[in-house]
Amino acid sequence: MFGGSDTIDPVRRPTEPASPVQHAAWQAGRIPEVERVRPGLWSIPVPLPNTPLRYVLVYALELPGGVALIDAGWDTEEAYTALTTGLKTAGYAITDVQAVLVTHMHPDHYGLAGRVREDSGAWIGLHPADARLLRDRYEMPADLADRERRLLLRCGVPEGRARELAGASLGIRGFVSAGAPDRLIEDGDRLDLPGWDLTAVWTPGHSPGHLCFVSEKLLFSGDHVLAKITPMVAFHTQSPPDPLGDYLDALRKVGRLDVEEVLPAHEYRFPDLLGRVDHVIGHHVERLAEIERVVAGEPGLTCWEIAQRLTWSRPWESIQGFQLRAANNETLAHLVHLVSHDRLRTSENLYYR
Description:
By secondary structure, the protein is α/β, with parallel strands linked by helices. The chain has helices at 20-28, 77-89, 107-110, 113-120, 128-131, 134-139, 141-154, 159-166, 243-255, 273-297, 303-308, 321-340; strands at residues 4-5, 35-38, 41-47, 55-63, 66-70, 97-101, 123-126, 183-184, 190-193, 196-202, 211-215, 218-222, 230-231, 261-264, 345-347, 350-352. It has one domain: 4-Layer Sandwich (Metallo-beta-lactamase, Chain A), CATH 3.60.15. The protein contains twelve helices and 16 strands.
């Protein structure tokens, strides 16, 4: 339930980069250097363990007497060292951090926030929709996994495989310094950060409380819009009724913003927000149509069976572990969306026209 999906989008149509140096590092499979994006704004790559995303881009916004961070990274020693070293390159120490604005609750964004707060006294901000789920996600992960197992069974996943996949993300608990946020950030809130006119934009879908931030024609997009891959939008036990519908609405919402450059949490910066939004929406439109064709050809399939008949970026047999659960739950999100718009009908765990 974290990061982007490298399974769902077989097209992989990237947008042009805004930073050739950052893009070259991504292409070469390297972690990019700490970069001064603009006066008073720094990009600090923080490594991620055992994930093809490789790093999360933490943004440091200079303030009088310190900095504010947008996201924080995983709670590992390697990540913490990278963050503190990056801050030193920018001329700051961890004790200079005054605020951590978290785009969403996934561990590669929220994980280090608690440790940063302990070391600096910074306040942590998060949207209330994600804040409500923190305890369920990180303090009682076994209960969450059992509910996920029951959901997978309803999707038609065999019992043994459902148990295996339900526990596939339990290990992420060790990458999070859990703790309640100090401030709840709502849609449209203007953050009190001297020198910055920063406004929060609620963009649910990848998580129920995902936030982007806009300032001076820059969009800090978190995982909502990425340059190359599509973020994971899945239906799971913590989901609202139609997460894909929420995500598509939020894409259209940010597409109307007057933005010159997008600063995502992964990959690299890019200028063409509207072009990327249009492509991602088009991808999901194509995916919905593909699912309708599968169901029309074989009425009565389960979600698990439908997922195996879809086009993925690699053979179904090679998808394993958490990514396999993600593929099922992403398929389920599309099915739920189709049912909610009366394009499919469902009976228990069967989907048909």
